[in-house]
Amino acid sequence: MILSNFSNISEAKTFSFKETTIDDIQIAFKQNKLTSRQLVEFYLSEIQKANPILKGILEVNPDAFFLADKADQERKSGALLSSRLHGIPVLVKDNIATKDKLNTTAGSLALVGSIVPLDAGVVKKLRNAGAIILGKATMTEWAASRSSTMPNGWNGRLGQALNPYVASADPSGSSTGSATSVAANLAAVALGTETAGSILSPSNANSVVGIKPTVGLTSRAGVIPISHRQDTVGPICRTVSDAVEVLDAIVGFDRDDFPATKKASTYIPHGGYRQFLKADGLKDKRLGISKDLFGSNDIKTYQQHFNTLRQKGAVLVDNLEIPNIDLVQDALVVAQRIALSAESKMNLNAYLKKLVYTRVRSLADVIAFNKVSASEKVEEYGQDIMEAAEKTNGIGKLEREALSNITKACKYGFEKMMKEKALDALISPGADIADLLAIGGYPGINVPAGYDKSGVPFGISFGGLKGSEPTLIEIAYGFEQATRIRKPPPSHPHWDYISDSI
């Protein structure tokens, strides 16, 4: 899709598009200094210039201008707008179903042209909030559940996505495009998904904020699955406040993801999550520093941040050891692999069977498709994870034992430490806490924490027990406001001369 006429952008001369926040946008809307059409035009213009290099976006929504005009008209008519996401362009990861003109493929050629029955549960909530679906973000193919040798951010549809800060750096995955595109100001905000690190890790690698919610807090209905025990959908944004705005819009009960969303909906605070954006949110918080996550080099890198946390009133409980670490390590390395292998086959088969149209109806079909249509790169990376999953046969004795070990590891490891030490959160360098949070369905937030000598970003993550999002938001926002570390990627003037269509 070639986009050439963006004349309306110049009309919003008093508005700074780069690094803009939802607060900035909503104020500009109210002051009649900005329209949703101008906002969409800006992002589409930036996508046209940068995406051929960054490869963060698979498709833009051909109805984006229509949706923007609709939002502008609703605002102009004085309609009662209850959501702060109204008129805001949102980028959606390519494994989240949209019942529109966009594909939903998990980055795979096998699902190009397939037709989903419904919008995903979170997409319904975005549309109800008046948000504009801007397009589909690229991702590691099949959310990294295809091949153990496939690079982060690569898929057969688009190729290799790049880190906007340092092109040679790992952009991480599997929500690669959601993180890289938001970081590079190609979208206002984005949605990602996580099974084991796929929100926290790319957020860490691309200097953005990622919230990995408690499993079930956001609906997984219509999301191409790996494990309903671990899958979750969350925001990836440039600021904690924007991430919280998106979280508020997408949480809640969904009858198509029952009983998980019913159980988790009891965690949602009355009045939503925005109330926890407190500048003094670190005061009196007990934050754990574990030897199992922080090595000596990490301690040096993050020492300044530890000092900041203390200065802002947090109590740091250091030199911690995760109880029963052998049990925990076995769950992370062995049991999780066994469980995910069986779950991914069952869950993917169920998803594919519900599609209105598709060339593949099972994992076996996907494997066969890949063999027939394999490009040189696809052959190089293979599909060993999928082939191992295809050999499983439901939840048998081996899988039940693995799941039991995971449950024990959570109860007598992370949960035991959090409760006995009365911790509000466990701190992690980068996204190193991701697997620990994944196996128990616990929430976590990554916040930008700095850049190394080469300019490669790194973050800091805070993880807590199920339903602890309010506390984690206070901590993350307090840290962000105290440090204000995030900066946009370096400019790349040669993008201006690229006119390729995406």
From TrEMBL:
Which positions fall inside the Amidase domain? 39-430
> What domain of life does the native source organism fall in?
Eukaryota
InterPro entries, sorted: Amidase_dom (IPR023631), AS_sf (IPR036928)
Q: Which residues cross the membrane?
A: none
State one Pfam family annotation. Answer: Amidase
Point out the coiled-coil segments of this chain.
Answer: none
What is the protein's name according to its record? Answer: Amidase domain-containing protein
State the organism of origin. Answer: Capsicum annuum (Capsicum pepper)
